Amino acid sequence: MSKGKIAFYWAGSCGGCEVSVVDLDETLFDVLEHFDIVFWPCAMDIKYSNVEDMGDGEIDVCFFNGCIRNEENQEIAELLRKKSKIMIAFGSCSHLGGIPGLGNLSTREEILEQVYKKSKSVSNEKGIYPSSSVDEHGNEIEVPALRKYVSALDDVVDVDYYIPGCPPPTDVIKTAVLALISGNVPPRTEVLAPNRTVCHECKKEKRDIAVKEIKRIYQLDDIDPKRCLLEQGLVCMGPATREGCGAACPTANMPCTGCMGPPSADPLSENCEQGARMISAIASITDVVDEKNSEEDEIKAALDEIRDPVGIMYMYSMPKSILKRRRKE
Amino acid sequence: MNDDNGGFEPKIVGFLCNWCSYAGADLAGSSRLKYRPNVRVIRVMCSGRVDPLFVFKAFEKGADGVLIAGCHPGDCHYQCGNYKTMRRMHVMKKMLGQMGIDPERLRLEWVSAAESTRFVNIVNDMTETIRELGSSPMKSEADCDE
Predict the structure, then answer these.
(1) Minimum distance, in Å, between the CA of residue A307 and any CA atom of chain B
(2) Which one, out of A114, A178, A217, B97, has a CA that is 20 to 30 A from the CA of B44?
(3) Lowest mean pLDDT among A39-43, A141-145, A297-301, B49-53
């Protein structure tokens, strides 16, 4: 029996997804029994031209992590789509845009200006910015240009499945990979993770009590490890986030940041509105001291510690949200 | 539609609560009060029913402004729906500001069933505010991906 072929690729990402693949431990041997890895820039010496030489659909499964930030990311996404039967968006960045997606709060020009000019540790008197064509000792080098905005993988190519998480939890990857090996594949475009919220998995005790004000973690003198973090006044994204991670962060007394993205099948919208859900959750758990007299100021005082609502509530999903990016009035 | 000229007519989506504000708007109608035709009214059972998703969706679909109107604090038919809305507003406005949408485009007002004139004034006032702000930035997709 001939072995199948799999590929891994990293686009605009940090490399954490590659580590989560290595974290599969022995399961990797099961995978290698059935599949040959034909392309994995992080771990193998292989060139893009090797992929170009492959036939269309020659790769059985491609695990693509990272967002589409520059032209190279997009080009390789299109190339791998052509060469692969199944394209999997692997990890938050390719699923929803991920943390790099917050770059959409700035324009490309603002980002370049900040990084190459304004940043305190940078001295760039001549005002040199990266450009797509560079003259280096008489040789012209072409560098991939930054795209205007960050996109998720399915904004540029068709995606067959999604494996969420930053990075995807080992169990989620295992289940997905074993399903693929057994040929027991779910319907197309499905997110390969359970479809409830982190709160379902979280063991912390919920007492259904209201909080008086939202705090940031350093402002709490002490965290009660047994009790719900939201009820202790922290913004824990659990109620707006898909399960599958075993509530790893809340269990370690850190609020959930929402990396698995929202649970799917939102009846109202195909968009991933983690932020909208979280605003509602926060409105429901906060209770201003005396509701009869509550005025704007009291609410402001209670919620003012949410300094950066977009950064907290759309940390991983902004490019796929309804608002998508910052606009200009 | 162009900004800054007389030809721009703002589109405002109005979520009015069934018990107070919708009745107030209804009274404005039956009292034959004249007001700007720019608000498209959607009746909801409570201002607390207005999920932030509705607001974002309205902007996505081309609204220039969103008005949420409910019972005065303390008068909510469901006791505390309007307080929840109040809290959501605080975070939503901050969020819209971060996304480059003027928070003035989103407005929360209390209108009782008897306050038809107040409703009329709010709609007229908001229409003029939005007219000055111009067309919603969500509508210009020209700066999309390359």
Answers:
(1) 8
(2) B97
(3) A297-301
A302 touches chain B (CB under 8 A): yes
What pLDDT shows up at residue A270?
58
pLDDT value at residue A287:
79
Write down the pTM of the prediction. Answer: 0.91
Domain ranges of chain A: 4-99+150-191, 109-147, 198-320
pLDDT in the model for residue A181: 80
Residues in Cβ contact with B23 at an 8 Å cutoff, skipping those fewer than 6 apart: B113
Number of domains in chain B: 1
Contacts of A291 in chain B (CB under 8 A): 80, 83
Q: Please state the separation of Cα A134 from the chain's center in Å.
A: 32
Per DSSP, the three-state class of A88 is strand
Rounded percentage of chain A residues whose pLDDT exceeds 70: 95
In this structure, what CATH number is given to the domain that contains residue B109? 3.40.50
Q: Is the pLDDT of residue A308 over 70?
A: yes
State the nearest Cα–Cα gap between A151 and chain B, in angstroms.
Answer: 9
B40 in any annotated domain: yes
Name the residue of chain B whose CA is nearest to A105's CA: B99
| The two structure tokens encoding residue A245 | 């991670």
Name all contacts of A218-221 with Cβ < 8 Å and 24+ positions apart.
A219/A305
Q: Which residue has the tokens 């409570």?
A: B46
B94: in domain: yes
Architecture of domain A4-99+150-191: 3-Layer(aba) Sandwich (3.40)
Q: Tell me phi and psi for residue A7, to 5 degrees.
A: -135, 150
